[in-house]
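Chapter review: from sequence to fold.
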Amino acid sequence: MSARPTFSPVPHYPDDCNALRSKNQDEWIPILSCAASFPLDLFVVAAEQMVQHPEYNSTLILRSETLSETSTDSGDLLGNLPCIEGMLPMKNIHRKLLPRRPCRDAPIEQHCTFYCNSTKPSKFTEESDIPSPSCLILSPIIQPGETMPYYHPTVAHLAVRYLRSLEEPGVHESSADLAKCSIGIEVIPLAGTPDPTEPNSRVYRTCLALLDTIHRYGWGALTNYKKRVVHDSLVTRETYQDLYLILRERHKYLVNQWKESTDPLKHVFEDIGIATFLMLLWKETYGPENGQTSVIDDSGHDGDTAPWRTWPRPPGGFIDLGCGNGLLTHILTSEGYSGTGIDVRARISWAHYPEASQANLKVVAFDPMSFPSDKDNELFLPGAFIIANHADELTPWTPVLATLSSASGYLSIPCCAWSFESKFERSQSTSSGSNVFHVSFKDTPQEFIDELRLGGDGSNKSSYSMYRIWLAYLSADCGWEIECETLRIPSTRNWAIVGTTFIAIRRRRNRDIQKSRECAVSILRKVRERGLFKPRKPEGKAGHK
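The C-alpha cell string follows.
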C-alpha cells in the first residue's frame, strides 16, 4: 500500500451549494480544507476515532469520557444543537474532556453531533436508506458564569465536513471521484475571538490540527491501519491516568530537588508512571480472592487516608534490582509499600530521601552465582515481587530468580540486551550463551510472538525484538505465565514483560512446579560451570566493608 497522500491544507472557500448554513442565521466562517484521500463511508470511522481520542490533538487534554450517546431512533436530537439547512442529525455523543492538569484547567462537556446530507424525515424505513454522515459538529457546553478552558478553542461550534461534487450520494467514490472530494472545517466563533482565519490565531491552529487528524485517520481506515503499539492491556487507561495525576501532584516536588546530573523531568515522571502501574497491577493481582495474603505496612504514615493504603500488594514486598537513584523504591515506600532497592553503589539522592526510604535502599553487588545465600534470603522473601527496570545483566536472571525464590511475580523492563554471560547477539544462530538457554527463532510460533505486543513494523527482526522473544521463552520455561504491556512512561524502552502467575501453581500440578525449578536450577548450574559471568563489585564505602 502506498504512503499517505501529502497533507496540503488550503484556505476553505466553499461554493454556494456547499456553504454551511444554520437555520437560525448564525454565520459559519470557513477556515481550511484539504483533498480527501478516502470515500465518504469512511468519514464516520475517522470522525468517531477523533471524538474518542481528543488527547491526540492536544497535549493539554488527558482523555474524553462518553456521558451518553443518542441515535436518530431515540427521539429529537437537536435540542440546543445547530439546525443545519439540508442536513439531518444522525447521532450525538455527549462527552467530557478531561484536562491533563486538573489543578490548572477545568474539564468541559461537549456535544459531538453527526449529520447527513438529507432532507428526508429522520426515521428511515430500511437500513440501506440511511445515508452516511458527512458532517461532525463539535459544540462546547458552557454554563452561565463559566469560562472556556484554555485547551478549547473559543468557538460556539466547529464543523468538520466531507464535501464532494457527485450527483448520486449513495455511490462509492472512484479514484477520479476522490480527486473532486475534500474535507473542510468551519467555525462559529464566540464574541471577541480574534480573526479565526489568521494563521497565528489559536482557532486556526486548532482547525489545522483537526484537519490533519481527520485526513490521517481516514487514510488509516482506508488502508486498514493497525496500531504498532498497544497500551493498557493489563491496567485500564482511565484508572492509570487518574492515579498517575494524583501521584504526580504528590511527588512532582522531586523535580526541583533533584540531586543527580541526569534529566529530572524524565526520571521523576518515568518512575511515577512505573509506580502507578505497579500499584494498580498489584491491586488486581493480589488479595484474598486470588489466594494471596497482603501485608500492609502503615508505619510512619499516620493520618494519610489515601485509598491505596489498604490495597492488596505482594505478600513478600518488592525488591528493586539495580535501583539506581532509588526513586522508584522511594515513591513506593512513601505510598506505604514494603520493599527494598539494591544497587552496587549508593547515589547522591539516597541521602536526601526520608529515613524510611533510606532504610530500604541497600548497596549490594548481587551475584546470582552464590544464590541462594543467607543474605539473598533476607532480600528475596517468599512471595516477593521482583522489579527489574533497565537491570542490564540481571535482566535475564529475573524470571530465574523469581522461580528459585518462590516470588509472587515480577516486572521486567529490558533496555540493554544481555544474556546470562555476555551481551545478547542476534547474529548468532541461536542466542548468546546458547549452551545455557537456546531459542530457535526460526521455529517460534507466530501466535506466541503476537501475544508479546512487540510493536514496530511487525517483522521482529531487530536485535531488541529478538531479545524480547528470547526473554519471553525464558520466562515460560521457568514456569511463568507472562503478559506484556507498553507502559505509558517517557522512555523509548517502555515495553514490559510481567509474570504474575506461576503456571504450575495455578494448575495445581506439582510435577510442573518441579520441572520449572529444574529448568531454573539447570541454567544456574551451567553458568557456574562455564565461569563466564562476572558480577559487579560494590562501589564506595560499602565496597570496603
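Two observations follow directly from the output. Residues 237-290+306-422+452-530 form a domain with the Rossmann fold fold (CATH 3.40.50). Residues 166-172, 428-434, 504-508 have pLDDT under 50 and may be disordered.
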